[in-house]
């Protein structure tokens, strides 16, 4: 298992007073800069990253990974089609759960 650290920085200067933020002619705006953007190495040198021991990393890994009980849903025999699920439920004499929804699962619509 690998620990991946991602650092993303975006620099978006605000438009000058009286200037539109998007071009009206369909063209991409011309980007000008007074100073060159810093390199990734320069940015990482400015960040004070914690020095973690292998023990601390293993502790966090164990905390973040799901337990066998939490991952038990992965052992359920999912079906690829509703028809296959109906047939299997009928053969076993058991009910079938059909989950239907519209929108974002977290309610972000």
Description:
The chain has a domain at 78-109. It contains three helices and no strands. It has 109 residues and is mostly helical.
Keywords:
disordered N terminus, single chain, 109 residues, mainly alpha, 3 helices, elongated, 27% helix
What's the N-to-C terminus distance?
A: 35 Å
SSE run: HHH
Instruction: Tell me the total number of β-strands.
Output: 0
Mean pLDDT: 76
Q: Give the proportion of residues in helices.
A: 25-40%
Strand content: under 5%
Computed structural class: mainly alpha
**Helix count from the secondary structure assignment:** 3
Low-confidence stretches: 1-12
Largest sheet: none
Q: How big is the Rg?
A: 26 Å
Which of globular, elongated, flat, extended, rod-shaped describes the shape? Answer: elongated
Summarize, please.
The protein has 109 residues and is mainly alpha-helical. 27% of the residues lie in helices and 0% in strands. It has a domain of 32 residues.
Per-chain topology:
Blueprint: H1 40-46, H2 54-64, H3 82-92
């Amino acid at each position: 298992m690998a620990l991946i650290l991602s650092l993303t920085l975006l620099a978006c200067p605000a438009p000058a007073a009286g200037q539109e933020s998007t071009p009206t002619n369909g063209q991409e705006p011309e980007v000008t800069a007074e100073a060159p953007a810093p390199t990734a190495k320069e940015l990482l040198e400015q960040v004070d990253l914690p020095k973690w021991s292998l023990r601390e990393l293993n502790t966090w890994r164990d905390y973040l990974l799901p337990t066998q009980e939490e991952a038990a849903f992965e052992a359920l025999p999912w079906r690829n089609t509703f028809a296959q699920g109906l047939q299997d439920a009928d053969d076993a004499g058991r009910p079938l759960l059909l989950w239907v929804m519209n929108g974002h699962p977290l309610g972000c619509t």
